[in-house]
From TrEMBL:
It comes from the Eukaryota. The keyword Acyltransferase does not apply. It is a multi-pass membrane protein. It is found in: Membrane; Mitochondrion. Gene3D superfamilies: PEBP-like (3.90.280.10). The keyword Ribonucleoprotein applies. One of its GO terms (biological process) is cellular response to phosphate starvation. This is Large ribosomal subunit protein mL38. Belongs to the SYG1 (TC 2.A.94) family. One of its GO terms (molecular function) is inositol hexakisphosphate binding. GO terms for cellular component: Golgi apparatus; mitochondrial inner membrane; plasma membrane; ribonucleoprotein complex; ribosome.
Length: 1086
């Protein structure tokens, strides 16, 4: 299996975005390899430069991935550490409480046995926590393997060894790989469960903590059984159809009644099979249905188990129906068969023995119990999801009601008899059964509103199910009064039923698409009309589902038209629409679970959070009373305390014993959420600070909250010449003309074949400057923060190329002097000694902007064009970091001739101070619009070296002249200290040179320990000695080895071959080995 497939199969779905982006990095490598020049056509240095440029971007991408992984791993590890401390504290508290309740005195060697219920709750909490640790460890291993694979692929494709060095020096030194705390937590959890909860039985403890294999493969035996039973069902179904055709005269009306009796079980079997397909789709797409339904990850049904169950039940259903058709030949009453089938299915469900998927059946019965008693229990996702499924199985419920009524009223099980009292004439029980699924969801919505106090969406959702009541009531009244009207459309209840049905269908469809599926999100981006993030691979699935849901939501209208025109009976229409409704719910399940999964992924919750320490109501009253005291919370508002119930009611006297600590830990948040009390715990005598990981903001969220930026205020403004995109037709015509011209030149083809064709790089540069060059320059300036520090939130695209170069002479004799040019690019490095004199500046002084594009001016234009050139240093001001030094200011430059401009501030060489790093020196060229400008206020008054007069601020300068100036050109270089700066300070400025050095803080040394473990004796004591004394000692040892006439001692040829006495302490033995091998600080004495 390829690693990409292995990674996709073993990742934790909720953390999908936090893993290494292996596919993207692999794509970058293949793209770089394809874009590289061929080996045969270029020199090796060209390919090396290409790969070197690629490596810079690739390793930047790798650094970002590594930063993402380190941050997420650190957050989850901190969360796991706090969770373990909380669970250990709760376990210790329960053990102490139980020991006190037993009247135990003194220490006992026997392990304390907790009550069964409390022990089970603690075991469940530790098992879920252990699963989260294994997932985090798997996250650690997968990411390291991903980096190892991609760096190996990098070295193989690019024929280098930098990937291996990056893996060793960067990846394996990062915290997510080097941190071993996760292994310690796993060992401590195993030890705690083994000793404290399983009485020292490690085998039983590890069986409880067993983690299901990640990416577990399905059993081929189950797959075989599914195929076998499905094949049997298909054969039996064909037999049933043929038998029904040939025996229709014999069974007559009995077959029509039997069809109603068998229809409900068949819908349930179809529903189970489709749920199996749902699970397969969820698992294949990474939707963690196990977590969403809060199933036991160690023991739950897979899609194959459900399909197998559905196939077996389908075979039993087929055999029962065949027995009905051939009941005369078998000499049994025909209507015994559907009753036996229904009883078998019910017995299978409620069977109390631990066989036939006992855990799954018990979970289903428990969920059904909570669903039917919805107003009195907390509503979870599984509860209202099951109630939603029941709304699509209304026909099955009505068929079950018909079955009960049929066998209760019909004493003859050989003939059907009259069943009107169970169908058309039943105006009480049947409507109530029809409303039951809608009532369950209605009650659940009311309960969720009571728990959350959120009117939307819970009350709005309750209104949706309330429309079902209107549909059933008006439908029943319509049937009761249909005999009173000759024309059915004269029945007023028909129109009320139609109106309520349309309202209900529209309401339900809108809720499906917008709320349950989360589609039509305004931030959908490229997923038009869907949502920003989708799980399933093809967007067309979503569009088909939207149309399918609309069609099937209004399928009742088609049935109504067919029934009113006498084309089909109502029973046949129901038999068609009922499976379609089950299919609609099957499609609905895919997108409902996907939406829930995406909401859960935002919280990165991958396992169940089991809380075993609920708050007692008496303790709540004590806390409220303490908060009203003088030393309590004084700014408390009148809020109502709601008692709440969590799974596993344990007595919690530890709360009152540590009340002061808990009040400090929770603060005012205690009023808003009493459950916060459970998240505070002690570790080694210290209180765990901060909110629980589930409630606390991440580091990225806190930084984002600290640096809130108003997008309207911070939106960058273009203060330069605007860019008008040239006509696409003109560009295409120019390219075609160029191609035709090139094809007509046979000389080019000959030179190309002979590999002698040379490209004019100057022409390439000109084309670059006319097309994408200005935008590249802008990006470089943004990278170096030029616009941010000069113009604030403004920027401009340089339309005029600034050609600037410094010239220096090398050689003492003028005749032999060599002139070296140092061009100014966009961030290149120059030394102060290379920039002592003013540079040569050239640019297109006849440039003008004509409103359609940046072009050269008409050559016949005789009007002068005026320019301003300013050179500033935003990093070097000695007194105010918000200001700059102006090194050169030339205004009113006519037609690009800098020598004829008005020099307001003469050129001043760069003087970056020592210890301050690189300084940016920025040339900005401005276009003057209204002739010459009076710059007299900026002129140096005879003091060219006065730094006070050269204090400048580009933003203020531009604001003062923004109506008459437009920035048009940009160039800049970086400069750091050299020896010429010292001479400049002393000779030109007449002041001492400032030198900046970093004042390193003294390292923190913790107090000495009585018995330091696993620390070298001499190195540990050296930390508490005077460094000067240690240096003196090493110097003395060095001098003792120095002989005034003989050379240094020869090193041992085989240092490790010489034995060291076993009586020598370990720390001294290590020092002797270092001395022989020349390792570490021992080199100071050589």
């Amino acid at each position: 299996m390829k690693f990409a497939e292995h990674l996709s199969a073993h990742i934790t779905p909720e953390w999908r975005k936090q893993y290494i982006n292996y596919e993207e990095m692999k794509g970058l490598l293949y793209t770089a390899n394809e874009a590289a020049p061929a080996i045969e056509s270029v020199e090796p240095d060209v390919r090396m430069r290409h790969f070197a440029n690629f490596d810079e971007s690739f390793y930047n991408y790798s650094d970002n991935e590594l930063k993402k992984i380190n941050t997420f791993f650190a957050e989850k590890l901190a969360e796991a550490t706090r969770k373990y401390a909380t669970l250990s504290n709760q376990l210790r508290t329960q053990l102490e409480m139980h020991q006190k309740s037993k009247g135990g005195k003194g220490a006992s060697h026997k392990p304390v046995q907790l009550p069964h219920r409390k022990a089970q709750e603690l075991k469940l909490a530790f098992s879920e926590f252990y699963l989260s640790l294994i997932l985090l460890q798997n996250y650690q291993n997968l990411n390291h393997t991903g980096f190892r694979k991609i760096m190996k692929k990098h070295d193989k494709i690019l024929a280098s060894d930098t990937g291996a060095s990056y893996l060793k020096d960067v990846v394996e030194m990062s915290c997510f790989f080097s941190n071993k705390d996760i292994g310690k937590l796993i060992n401590e959890t195993e030890t705690t469960v083994t000793v404290q909860l399983e009485g020292g039985d490690r085998q039983r403890a590890m069986k409880r903590l067993r983690v299901p294999p990640l990416g577990e493969q399905q059993s081929p035996w189950i797959t075989f059984k599914v195929g076998l039973f499905v094949g049997c069902f298909v054969v039996l179904l064909v037999t049933i159809i043929l038998s029904a055709i040939f025996h229709y005269r014999d069974v007559g009306d009995n077959l029509r009644i039997a069809f109603r009796l068998y229809r409900g079980p068949m819908l349930l079997i179809l529903f189970i099979f489709l749920i199996g397909i749902n699970i397969y789709g969820w698992r294949s797409s990474g939707v963690n249905h196990v977590l969403i339904f809060e199933l036991d990850p160690r023991n739950h049904l897979s899609e194959q188990h459900l399909m197998e169950m559905a196939a077996i039940l389908a075979v039993v259903w087929s055999l029962s129906l065949l027995c009905f058709l051939y009941s005369a030949s078998l000499s049994i009453p025909p209507f015994v068969n559907p009753l036996v089938l229904t009883v078998l299915m019910i017995v299978f469900l409620i069977n109390p023995f631990r066989i036939f998927r006992y855990e799954a059946r018990f979970w289903l019965l428990k969920t059904i119990g909570r669903m039917t008693a919805a107003p009195f229990f907390h509503v979870g996702f599984a509860d209202f999801w099951l109630a939603d499924q029941l709304n699509s199985l209304v026909t099955a419920l009505l068929d079950f009601q018909f079955l009960v009524c049929f066998y209760a009223t019909n004493g003859n099980w050989s003939e059907a008899g009259n069943t009107d009292q169970c169908m058309d004439r039943n105006y009480i029980i049947r409507p109530i059964v029809n409303c039951l699924p809608a009532w369950f969801r209605f009650a659940q919505c009311l309960r969720r509103y009571r728990d959350s106090r959120e009117a939307f969406p819970h009350l709005a959702n309750a209104g949706k199910y309330a429309t079902t009541f209107c549909v059933v009531i008006f439908g029943t009244l319509r049937n009761m009064n249909k005999d009173k009207y000759d024309d059915s459309f004269d029945n007023v209840f028909l129109w009320l039923w139609l109106l309520s049905s349309v309202v209900s269908a529209c309401y339900a469809y809108t809720w499906d698409i917008k709320m349950d599926w989360g589609l039509f999100d305004k931030n959908a981006g490229e997923n038009r009309c869907l949502r920003e993030e989708i799980v399933y691979s093809m967007p067309s699935f979503y569009y088909v589902a939207i149309v399918e849901d609309l069609v099937l939501r209004f399928s009742w209208a088609v049935g109504f038209v067919l029934n009113e025109n006498g084309l089909m009976s109502g029973d046949l229409i129901t038999s068609i629409t009922a499976p379609l409704e089950v299919f609609r719910r099957f499609v609905w399940n895919f997108f409902r679970l996907e939406n829930e999964h995406l909401n859960n992924c935002g919280k990165f919750r991958a396992v169940r959070d089991i809380s075993i320490a609920p708050l007692d109501s008496n303790d709540q009253a004590i806390i409220v009373k303490m908060m009203d005291e003088e030393d309590g919370v004084t700014n408390r508002t009148s809020l109502k305390f709601y008692h709440f119930l969590l799974p596993g009611q344990l007595v919690f006297p530890f709360l009152t014993q540590n009340m002061a600590h808990l009040l400090q830990c929770t603060g005012v948040q205690l009023l808003l959420n009493p459950a916060n009390l459970l998240k505070c715990s002690l570790r080694h005598g210290h209180r765990l600070r901060g909110r629980a990981p589930g409630d606390a903001k991440t580091l990225a969220e806190r930084l984002q909250a600290e640096n809130v930026i108003d997008p309207e205020i911070s939106k960058p403004v273009n203060i330069g010449f605007p860019f008008v995109k040239p006509s696409r037709a003109a560009q295409l015509g120019e390219r075609l003309a160029h191609l035709k011209e090139q094809r007509k030149n046979p000389e080019l083809e000959r030179l190309s074949r002979e590999r002698k064709l040379e490209i004019d790089l100057e022409q390439v540069r000109e084309d670059w400057l006319k097309t994408s060059g200005p935008f590249h320059i802008r990006r470089a300036a943004e990278h170096y923060g030029v616009f941010e520090h000069l113009f604030g939130a403004a920027y401009f695209v340089p339309r005029v190329e600034l050609r600037i170069r410094y010239e220096t002479s090398v050689g003492s004799d003028d005749s032999e002097a060599t002139t070296i040019e140092h061009p100014v690019r966009y961030g290149n490095l120059l030394k102060p000694a290379e920039t002592l004199s003013a540079p040569i500046v050239e640019f297109d002084g006849r440039f003008q902007f004509n409103g359609s594009a940046s072009q050269e001016a008409n050559k016949k234009d005789t009007e002068p064009h005026w320019w301003t050139l300013v050179l500033t240093n935003p990093d070097g001001h000695l007194e105010n970091s918000e200001h700059e030094y102006c090194h050169w200011f030339i205004g009113n430059i006519p037609n690009g001739d800098v020598s004829k401009g008005e020099t307001l501030m003469p050129y001043l060489q760069p003087f970056p101070t020592k210890g301050t790093g690189y300084h940016r020196h920025i040339f900005v060229l401005y276009k003057q619009h209204e002739g010459q400008i009076d710059y007299s206020q900026y002129r140096c008054n005879g003091q060219p070296y006065s730094l006070t007069e050269r204090t400048f601020r580009t933003l203020d300068f531009y604001r003062a002249h923004q109506d008459r100036l437009t920035p048009a050109g940009l160039a800049f270089f970086q400069c750091d200290w050299d020896a010429s700066v010292t001479a400049f300070f002393h000779e030109r400025l007449g002041r001492p040179q400032p030198v900046y050095e970093y004042d390193f803080p003294r390292p923190y040394i913790r107090d000495q320990e009585w018995f330091p473990q696993r620390k070298p004796f001499n190195l540990y004591l050296d930390k508490y000695r005077d460094p000067a004394q240690i240096r003196k000692e090493y110097l003395a040892r060095k001098l003792a080895r120095v002989h005034p006439f003989e050379g240094p001692e020869k090193p041992l040829r085989f240092p490790n071959a010489h034995p060291i006495s076993p009586d020598v302490p370990s720390w001294l033995r290590t020092e002797m080995r270092k001395d022989r091998l020349g390792w570490g600080r021992i080199n100071d004495i050589k």
